[in-house]
Amino acid sequence: MSALLDLLMGIFRQQTLGGAALELAALAAPLWLAALVGLLIGWAWRPRWAGVVVGDHNAQQAAQLPPPPAAAAVVPRNEAPAVVTRTVVAPAAPEDEQLAVNTRDLMHLWRLVQEKDGGPSWIHMMDRTLPTMRYQAWRRDPPNGPPQYRSSTIFEDASPEVVRDFFWDDEFRVKNSWDDMLLQYETLEQCAKTGTMVVRWVRKFPFFCSDREYIIGRRIWASGKTFYCVTKGVPRPSVPRQNKPRRVDLYYSSWCIRPVESRKGDGAMTACEVLLFHHEDMGIPWEIAKLGVRQGMWGCVKRIEPGLRAYQVARTAGEPISKHAAMAHVTTRFDADELVTEDSAEASSSSDNNKTAEVEKPKHWTNNIPKVLMIGGAVALACTFDGGLMTKAAIFGTARRFAGPGRR
């Protein structure tokens, strides 16, 4: 700063007005050059909305593209869509897309089970064992969204069909109180052909929180003796929101129920594994929610085993099943090999598209203009200000920082 003041004072000591003007012009020229460089850099890294405001060339090209094909005809409201019980994995039938839970949800759950969903790795957090049950749990923290949980529960001497009905039976949940958080339940919609349901739950939360309301869509697919049970939050504007209980919009809780070998070591497939994937945004800070889940998880889970045994006894005694359990029998059959083929085809197509994009992306020499101008402006400024090595180093460092993104 002192060097700059000395330079300005030297200019104003000039004998003639013309000489002073020439000196000021010589001093201001690099500054104007730096400002011009700044404008060019700002334009090179402008946000997307700036291109829209000034009529970006990319927007003009998009406007010249041919219009998309006409949308499929909408089914009139007074005509119920013809829903089939056989899932066509690829492509999904239009009737299936209209349901609260459709084939895309099956694909997502299948990828979670196969650990092919592309999410973060799971962190092991719990391992507990009872005489007739083993429980393991994992957690992961996605970049955006609440913590996600994965658990494996293996019940000895239990069939997948009974376990499926047990988790679907809201009436028994409340009657037996194995899930003591469920206060109210009601069925809002159901499809007798696919078993798709939309239900409303009210769950009890601790005294310092208000109760929570859930609008849940659910459906079951079956491949052999393996059941994929999807439950997730679905929007229903027709159900008015209330201050209490508070509505939970982001909710996902789905199971894969399948037979596994008993730990008795006799090779018999008399045990049943339940793979659960769960996450929700309860309106509680996520770190506090993680602490609460970790502290209360096992206390809730160990109540499931006696509830299941009581359900087995009731079924063996011939007690009639509830309407909810009856809907669990309406499943959509599919071939798991179709999902493997479809997933492989999608992965191959995505890989080919990425490679094509990399090959077709041109590297034009004009891409280096912003870096050249920035470094040139830095050189001019560094030569103008005779402030020592620290000033020059700061200017060159700033230029290198702004020019760096072009190399990444």
Automatic annotation (TrEMBL):
<feature type="domain" description="START">
    <location>
        <begin position="110"/>
        <end position="313"/>
    </location>
</feature>
<protein>
    <submittedName>
        <fullName>Polyketide cyclase/dehydrase and lipid transport superfamily protein</fullName>
    </submittedName>
</protein>
<dbReference type="InterPro" id="IPR002913">
    <property type="entry name" value="START_lipid-bd_dom"/>
</dbReference>
<feature type="transmembrane region" description="Helical">
    <location>
        <begin position="21"/>
        <end position="45"/>
    </location>
</feature>
<feature type="region of interest" description="Disordered">
    <location>
        <begin position="341"/>
        <end position="363"/>
    </location>
</feature>
<dbReference type="InterPro" id="IPR051213">
    <property type="entry name" value="START_lipid_transfer"/>
</dbReference>
<dbReference type="GO" id="GO:0005634">
    <property type="term" value="C:nucleus"/>
</dbReference>
<dbReference type="GO" id="GO:0005737">
    <property type="term" value="C:cytoplasm"/>
</dbReference>
<keyword id="KW-0812">Transmembrane</keyword>
<dbReference type="InterPro" id="IPR023393">
    <property type="entry name" value="START-like_dom_sf"/>
</dbReference>
<keyword id="KW-1133">Transmembrane helix</keyword>
<dbReference type="GO" id="GO:0008289">
    <property type="term" value="F:lipid binding"/>
</dbReference>
<keyword id="KW-0472">Membrane</keyword>
